[in-house]
């Protein structure tokens, strides 16, 4: 017999209300603010000195070449553009590029790769728990919940001290069970801006390997910190030390092709044979979820990486983005000693030591949109807005 609840569940009109993703809600709120001087430092896109997110010149060139030479838009299959993944392989994996226990495929952005990673874990071990350092990105918990894995949060960051709670992190990982998953942020990826240093990576990966955990590393900002190789330190260390590793990678930021959805998924197991088996499941999950990834952005990245001259020009444009991030950080840090920690961090994000009330007041009084937690994008504004931003933040800290 149908109960009232199951009958209700059959009607679309009776679906429960969904709380929207806090980051997407913030973007919508900023867009709806009519004040001309509003500052949207919530969304994670690079902006130049004029406050624009320009298309890279090498992407424009690659798009032109694609337009001139592409002869077919026939299907490519669940793996997408296989050459794109091959070209990315040495950039991400470095000295592990030739390891046949590591395989990858193109995905719709880094978020698609993340979902694929958790799907694979859930297929292999539905009882695995996922250890998540908080705060994290608002889409991590729902992706983990969507594949019905249990999430175990541990405190990663001490806001007042602008410091990683490293002992807490080691303790949480040390108490995990073999087969559990350590969700780790690659370079410049932590929403707090507090990345693990190289010595900390060594300790974390040692515990992860000793406990038999699977590191799942989310890396979307390679090249925004110190350089492509330096920024891949954690990924490569995990590959060197752990039998099983998953990496969710994105080109959306470092090629500035956000909406084109360009990412890749990588898995390492203990043998080439086991990796082939795992990849068969990965293809199956990809087929179920999106069938095939979108081609355009990955085709442009493929063209750039295949061509020596375009590749060199991409590295120059990537360095220009990195240099701007680091110079804006230095300028914010110089504005007040309480902001000096920002100059010691890398990447686009930092977390200000502000209460939610202070954040909401900045939003109401100055049209400054950052996450309620105080997380903001250091290159989310023009040079003109930067002075107004730091003055308003220092005022808020004084209040
Ligand atoms: C948690 C997380 N990981 C990775 C990414 C990578 O970006 P994309 O999915 O746009 O390639 C994002 C994007 O915002 C993200 O929120």
Secondary structure layout plus pairing:
Layout (H helix, E strand, L loop, with lengths): L3 H6 L12 H11 L6 E2 L16 H13 L12 H12 L8 E7 H16 L4 E6 L5 H7 L3 E6 L1 E2 L4 E2 L1 H9 L6 E5 L12 H14 L2 E6 L8 H4 L1 H9 L3 E6 L11 E7 L3 H18 L6 H11 L1 H28 L13 E3 L4 H11 L1 E2 L5 E3 L5 H16 L1
Helix pairs in contact: 3-12, 3-13, 4-12, 5-11, 7-8, 8-10, 12-13, 14-15
**What class, by secondary structure content?**
alpha/beta
Tell me which ligands are bound.
pyridoxal-5'-phosphate
**Quaternary form:** single chain
For the report, how would you describe the main beta sheet? 7 strands, mixed
Computed CA radius of gyration, to the nearest angstrom: 22 Å
Strand segment count: 13
Please name the defining characteristics of this protein:
alpha/beta; two-stranded parallel sheet; 46% helix; globular; disordered N terminus; binds pyridoxal-5'-phosphate; 7-stranded mixed sheet
